[in-house]
Backbone:
């Protein structure tokens, strides 16, 4: 928890200029000072590489992508946007939680993983989810709540001090919006198998990630 407090202080006291804010990579290095997080990261990465050696042909791109996500009642563009990650391994580290209410930014995991993926199929999924992202916020929220009521996805309440590890390439996921306060998370994505024909990298550049 001391590392989480240090990270939040660094973010809260940084100047308004985006270029002067702490980089997500530097935030992750604060966590890597601790043995528990470093060992967890090493184990998760080794397990993913072993899985990929059996199931994913070709060479994985080893460079991780670090992202800080902040959500509040104003910033809602990343809420209710279902998607698959471009990477085989995702680590989610909650940094700050919003008050517990109907919509507090919780992670949503869809129940049926995709078991096989072609490059064409993956690109089509990204196009479909890109269209979904462009829908009005109220429509996206209604669709998410509909999926929750029908049991198509499950809400994952998270706790500060915990790390959540999952295969975002196989599991479709999304987030609720935030009605009050702010929710802040660090996301680290590892091992891009290259099934997006460069589309993922283009999207990250457009979104400034």
Residues:
């Amino acid at each position: 928890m001391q590392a989480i407090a240090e990270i939040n202080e660094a973010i809260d006291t940084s100047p308004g200029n985006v270029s002067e804010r702490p980089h997500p990579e530097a935030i992750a290095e604060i966590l890597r000072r601790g043995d528990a997080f470093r060992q967890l990261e090493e184990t998760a990465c080794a397990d993913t590489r072993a899985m990929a050696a059996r199931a994913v042909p070709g060479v994985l791109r080893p460079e991780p992508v670090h992202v800080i996500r902040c959500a509040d009642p104003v910033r809602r563009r990343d809420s209710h946007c279902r998607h698959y990650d471009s990477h085989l391994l995702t680590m989610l580290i909650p940094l700050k939680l919003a008050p517990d209410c109907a919509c507090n930014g919780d992670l949503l995991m869809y129940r049926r993983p995709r078991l096989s993926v072609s490059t064409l199929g993956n690109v089509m999924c990204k196009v479909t989810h890109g269209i979904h992202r462009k829908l009005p916020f109220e429509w996206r929220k209604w669709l998410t709540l509909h999926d929750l009521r029908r049991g198509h996805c499950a809400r994952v309440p998270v706790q500060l001090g915990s790390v959540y590890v999952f295969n975002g390439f196989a599991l479709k996921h999304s987030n609720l919006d935030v009605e009050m306060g702010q929710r802040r998370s660090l996301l680290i994505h590892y091992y891009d198998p290259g099934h997006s024909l460069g589309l993922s990298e283009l999207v990250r550049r457009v979104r400034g990630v």
Notes: Confidence is low (pLDDT under 50) at residues 202-209. The two ends are 26 Å apart (CA to CA). Residues 2-207 form a domain with the Jelly Rolls fold (CATH 2.60.120).
